[in-house]
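Input record (one chain):
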Amino acid sequence: MSAATAPAERKATRPRADALRNRERIVGAAREMLVEHGPEVPIDEIARRAGVGNATVYRNFPDRDALVREVVCSVMDRTAAAAELALAESGDAFTALEHFVHAAVDERIGALCPMVSGTFDQHHPDLVASRERVERLIEELMGRAKAAGQLRPDVGVGDLMIAAGQLSRPPAGTDCPRGDRFVHRLLQLFLDGLRAPARSALPGQALSIKELRAA
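The corresponding structure, as predicted from the sequence alone:
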């Protein structure tokens, strides 16, 4: 490679790197604002927080549905990464499950997941792939804790996902920053109730992923 051609090649890579950074900024800003204001937050407000123009947003995401779907998929992918990290822990199986659940709640799944059914096609291949990956990893984490005799046997993945989602939403009339002070405290109370041996019998049956989707 000659010295004359090297600068041109370096310049050719910059737009792609800049475009990737812009896309990441847009998704990050959209995640924050969707949690704070809901799915109808104006695109120009998202662009302003991301530090880009409206045209840059639409160049990456042709419509609102595409942007919201990307945000939800990115949150699910980050949640899956947290589950993989927990599975890599070599210590107590229940502690690993706790670490995962607290990390998942920090991703705002409870605030974002309701947007799946309300704003776009929940059967989109990207969304399905991300969701199935998360569910598979949660099943593995819970199965490991059950096999160790640490997780009560009468709970399913659906039980855990519903509880984590509900507990991560701020109470009505409470904004997210104020609600954040209580989330992990209440979540730990719930997790303590999952420990084996169980202190009481649960009504009904363990909620599976299939039943959760049909609910």
